[in-house]
Amino acid sequence: MTEQVKTIKVLVFIVAYNAETTIEKVLRRIPEEIYNAYDTHVLIIDDSSSDETFSVGLSFSGTFPGKNITVLRNPENQGYGGNQKIGYNYAIKYGYDIVILLHGDAQYAPECMLSLIEPIAKDEAEAVFGSRMLKSGSALKGGMPLYKYIGNKILSGLQNKIMGKMLSEWHSGYRAYAVSVFKQIPFERNDNGFPFDTDIILQLIQAGARIREVPIPTYYGDEICRVNGMRYAFQVFVNTMRCRLHNMNLFYERKYDCAPQEAAYPLKLGYLSSHTMVIDLVKENSWVLDIGCGQGLVAKKLVKKGCHIVGIDSFKPADTSFFEKFIKAALPMDECPWNKEYRFDYVLLLDVIEHMADPEKFMDKLRDFLQGHPCTLIITSANVSFYLTRLQLLLGRFNYVKRGILDMTHLRLFNFGTLKRLLVQCGYKVLKIKGIPAPYPEVIKFRRLAFFMVYLNQLFIFLCKNLFGYQALIIAQPYPNLDFLLSRSMGHSSKEKNDTPERKENGQGSGLNFKN
Description:
Blueprint: H1 3-6, E1 9-16, H2 23-28, H3 32-37, E2 39-46, H4 53-63, E3 68-73, H5 79-93, E4 98-103, H6 113-121, E5 127-131, H7 138-141, H8 146-163, E6 175-178, H9 196-206, E7 211-215, H10 229-247, H11 274-281, E8 287-291, H12 297-303, E9 308-313, E10 325-328, E11 346-350, H13 359-369, E12 376-382, H14 387-394, H15 416-425, E13 428-436, H16 447-463, H17 465-468, E14 471-478, H18 482-498, H19 501-505
Parallel strand pairs: 1-2, 1-4, 2-3, 5-7, 8-9, 8-11, 9-10, 11-12
Antiparallel strand pairs: 4-6, 5-6, 12-14, 13-14
């Protein structure tokens, strides 16, 4: 190995509980190559064992003065997952590059360590799992009981289906991690018990970490199994489903909220959605004011129809070249930020007003800004009366999510009735109200099923849009305000006054003098 590889700091982390008869064997089997190739430190954490695990670990560390071995003991039992949390925090705190998890009961072979560490050392992965299932039949040959083998295969296959992955095994406890990955995932929120291992896989998937598997031998000896198989299977299935529901924005689980933050909602095209409806409603060659334009995804599509777009948002998009003009302005706006000489045909407020603490005040100001502009407003907003939200409330649940109706950034919630009432009370004429189906193609992988659900949703919206409309789309126009009406009345009166018969007879009404 080169000196550069030698500088990589590796922590061999051994979780131990009542392992006085096996811990020394595990320590002696750690290959010498690990110490030669890497700057290696061994950490043993005894999870408040009732036997002499801690003392045996201490005595062994004293007999090998050339090895860096630290032995700790939790004063209170933290559980299998809780013990790992302490070890990974140790790895972060003391600046290790790689940590490899090893069990103190000798179930996993320390001789295989290099194969787990190398992909991380070569920057080919952030996590490497030792799998007993990669080589067909090897798990059974190594003594894995048939019922555990079948249960492992079924449960891993089910979790792969739910999460769209192809891991050969989700339930091996022999793993290596790049310590940097622990700074990206909230592992401290994971289950303190055996489901911790599933939680951390889910978090790695969420974070987009590179995962590798390497084959390891299977060994079942006389170690005591401390896992209730049925309870464990139920817990990890529930956790995997919760992660999937979190990704579908039907449920929010903070420990799985570690996916890279997307800059904007994706453009929903190819089926009946708020975006396709708005793009169809705006006529070609129109002037459009897009308030809360985001990255301008809808605006780009309208430009292709020959439209001229003035975009407003509190942050500047990466590309503004397609805008006629982009204005960076905080919403809600205190003053009119655009040139009043613009004559807009449409004003778009797409999923904007639910993000405002006082949308009534904003709509009042917008109406004042638009005086003298006979434009059409197109407004979309999430419908809190959607049947899934009602069902959750019926079941006693009220979950904010990353996206969707109960988006965590929503400050106000609307249904069709409250949104219409807001507009009417702010001085707008509501011309049309439409229900928008849920964006099933964004969360259902089977395209035919997703499009069938959209079609079915459309039919149910026809029957009851308040219950089955995922979003509300309202087309409205601003009524003139009192200042505008007074100004127009004064102007009209002045004209009428100038055109009275008496003034016309005297040659004054039209500005022409017929007198000689």
